[in-house]
């Protein structure tokens, strides 16, 4: 059994045509037919039920296709890993939500670069939902994510910090003078929130619905700067981490009642290959937490 035979078989199944599979693979039709026949002879099974036009997979063929998909996926991942090892990759693909990035990245990037000047970092900002998807698809190596429950079993993570989400208003807004505010008090109040898929927005919307209410959302955006501007000029109230809100003048930060606190962790895939640069960054984050840099 060869990978090339499996690729020919997989493509024929995907396109339901040996002729189209050959065209897609830029090989001759007899080459695809011969590869499939060799697989059938090697394992003593009939993979296709051949018809006048096209074919259908036998039960054995369907089971073999499932194994083929898994084997080829693993082979592609192994190939990428070996290429990176051969090239001695000095790049970390890091994912981070915008608010967490505004708190952590400037200081962490500076200190990490001092310690590992040859390692480059590619930073991708997006919602928690999108970052977890990119991590699952091996398009990111490490991600910072907020959460309130453990991650699925296929991930490993290291807790970095606890953040408090607060109501943010313009400094002269009546609610800005309060010590605490309940979600129910905000019914009808114009709000600016991050888009769907951002963890914090999902928590806020859930709290509203637990109170039998819907938030009056003026705007959903992925831009932290837009949210801050709308809060500062009094157009809307919003929700930010206290550590972010306290960086900006003309803004009041009020705790929610009950408080809304989220954990932030560095997350990576369990069982995946940890490049030396990834290991360096994970250990750097652990040391930074212990030393109070974060």
Q: Tell me, what is the CATH class of the largest domain?
A: Alpha Beta
What is the gyration radius calculated from CA atoms?
A: 26 Å
Task: Summarize the helix and strand pattern as letters.
Answer: HHHEEHEHEHEEEEHEHEHEH
State the major sheet. 9 strands, mixed
Overall outline: elongated
Mean pLDDT: 89
Give the total of beta strands.
Answer: 11
CATH names the topology of the largest domain as D-Maltodextrin-Binding Protein, domain 2
**CATH-level-2 architecture of the largest domain:** 3-Layer(aba) Sandwich
Q: Helical segment tally? A: 10
Strand content: 25-35%
Residues in helices, as a percent range: 40-55%
Q: Please give the alpha-carbon distance between the first and last residues.
A: 52 Å
Model regions low in confidence, pLDDT < 50 over at least 5 residues: none
Structural class: alpha/beta
Number of spatially distinct domains: 3
What does it look like?
It is a single chain. 45% of the residues lie in helices and 26% in strands. The protein contains 10 helices and 11 strands. The strands form 2 sheets. Strands 3, 4, 5, 6, 7, 8, 9, 10 and 11 form a 9-stranded mixed β-sheet that branches. A two-stranded antiparallel sheet has the order 1-2. The chain is an alpha/beta fold and 294 residues long. The mean pLDDT is 89. The protein folds into 3 domains: 84 residues, Winged helix-like DNA-binding domain superfamily/Winged helix DNA-binding domain (Arc Repressor Mutant, subunit A, Orthogonal Bundle), CATH 1.10.10.10; 98 residues, D-Maltodextrin-Binding Protein, domain 2 (3-Layer(aba) Sandwich); 99 residues, D-Maltodextrin-Binding Protein, domain 2. The protein is elongated and about 80 Å long. A hairpin with a 4-residue loop joins β1 and β2. 28% of the residues are buried.
């Amino acid at each position: 059994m060869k990978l090339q035979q499996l690729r020919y078989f997989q493509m024929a199944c995907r396109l339901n045509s040996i002729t189209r599979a050959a065209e897609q693979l830029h090989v001759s039709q007899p080459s695809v037919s011969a590869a499939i026949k060799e697989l059938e002879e090697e394992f003593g099974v009939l993979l296709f039920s051949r018809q006048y036009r096209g074919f259908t997979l036998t039960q054995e063929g369907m089971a073999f296709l499932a194994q083929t998909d898994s084997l080829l996926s693993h082979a592609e991942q192994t190939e990428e890993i070996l290429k990176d090892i051969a090239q001695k990759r000095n790049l970390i693909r890091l994912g981070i939500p915008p608010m967490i990035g505004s708190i952590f990245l400037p200081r962490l990037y500076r200190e990490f670069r001092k310690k590992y000047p040859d390692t480059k970092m590619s930073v991708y900002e997006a919602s928690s939902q999108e970052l977890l998807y990119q991590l699952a698809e091996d398009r990111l190596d490490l991600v910072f994510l907020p959460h309130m429950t453990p991650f699925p079993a296929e991930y490993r993570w290291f807790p970095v910090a606890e953040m408090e989400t607060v109501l943010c208003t313009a400094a002269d807004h009546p609610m800005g003078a309060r010590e605490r505010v309940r979600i129910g008090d905000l019914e009808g109040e114009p709000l600016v929130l991050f888009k769907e898929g951002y963890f914090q927005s999902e928590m806020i919307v859930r709290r509203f619905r637990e109170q039998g209410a819907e938030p009056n959302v003026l705007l959903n955006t992925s831009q932290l700067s837009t949210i801050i501007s709308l809060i500062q000029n009094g157009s809307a109230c919003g929700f930010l981490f206290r550590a972010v809100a306290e960086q900006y003048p003309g803004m009041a930060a009020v705790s929610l009642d009950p408080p809304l606190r989220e954990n932030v962790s560095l997350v990576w895939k369990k069982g995946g290959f940890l490049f030396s640069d990834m290991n360096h960054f994970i250990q750097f984050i652990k040391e930074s937490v212990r030393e109070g840099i974060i």
